[in-house]
Amino acid sequence: MSFKVCTCFLVFIGFIIFNPQTTLGAQEIPCFFSFGDSLVDNGNNNNLDTTSKANYRPYGIDFPDGPTGRFTNGRTIIDIVAQLLGFNDFIPPFATASGQEIIKGINYGSGGAGIRDETGKHRGDNLSFNKQMLNHRTTISRIASLIGNETSARKHLSKCLYSVMIGSNDYINNYYLPQNYNSSSKYTPDQYAAALIQQYLDQLMTLYNYGARKLVLFGLGPLGCIPTEISMFPTPTCVDSINDAVQLFNDRLKQLVEDLNTRLSQAKLIYINVSSIQFGAPASIGLQIFNQPCCQVSSTTGLCIPGQKPCITRALNLFWDDFHPCETLNLYTAARAYKKLLPWDAYPTDISHLVLES
Q1: Any residues with CB less than 8 A from the CB of 297 and at least 6 apart, and which?
Q2: How many CB atoms sit inside 10 A of residue 230's CB?
Q3: Number of Cβ atoms within 10 Å of the Cβ of 301
Q4: CB-based burial of residue 17 (10 Å sphere; 0-12 exposed, 13-18 middle, 19+ buried)?
């Protein structure tokens, strides 16, 4: 039975691999708003004063529109989720979205962004989660102007899906950079996770007060397994201490989802267990190169060197650069977030069931 389930699932994601501009049925929700970091960013950092940008080759080499600001070779997790939800077009970045298109959703993601405002600032400017919510407040006003008034706008927004994928930079571009930030000297890993979750709670309540009712909270992936962290520690595989710290955050985030579902009767929240999904991904989907980036990376930024040819084995590589996964892993993660393969992939349900909630 399990073999049949896995086979069907791989056929399902295989269909999306070879149809990057194809949607899978009718649009399931009227609008989709996404918040996050470089795993989400699709162009919001392009004109910021920062080294955290990806609007050049070889980024986007497998994306229909070429380099757009996405930190991968192809689509992001959010791009693929939008396709699975039936959207005909990718959700536009806040930086360039205009006119009627904002009614269907906005992507606010920003490379380097975190829950904490100072996170990632050693690389230059970014749009922290707090700044992204300020931008969303601007969007609400624009939508109100388009459809009549703020009451109508809030009614519309209550039917939308909201996803948040944030927190990775609070570790790799804050806590684990003691030369730039003092958070590791102020907090133990457990204290830091607690402080992050408390701030995250406040931010989510702001989003709720802006009208968000269906929220997808992505947990953090196994950050101790990304090439940049492996290179700084004497290990050929993963840095267990970093993954252990990340798990403290994820455990608290899952509990937060449970608490808010109890407290907020009008809201539905789900938690996506990214670490669990991605730990089992390489062997199950044929990835063979686990700890080396596909593109040639800069020794100072860990991002792809402009104009250099990437590897030709992109479908076999876990990582695109020193931080970000190739499209294949994004595809696998998005598919299991949308429709869980294992019971612990998503809690208490997955995206496909969340969008059906009244």
Answers
A1: 227, 303, 304, 305, 321, 322
A2: 20
A3: 16
A4: middle
Known catalytic residues are: 38, 321, 324
pTM tops 0.70: yes
pLDDT in tens, 198-227: 999 999 999 999 999 999 999 999 999 999
Output b/e per residue, 94-116; b: 16+ Cβ within 10 A: bbebeeeebbbbbbbbbbbbbbb
pLDDT tens digits along 139-172: 999 999 999 898 899 899 999 999 999 999 999 9
How many residues in the chain? 358
Kindly tell me the sign of the dihedral angle through the C-alpha atoms of 233, 236, 241, 245.
positive
Distances (CA, A) of 48 to 40, 143, 206: 16, 25, 25
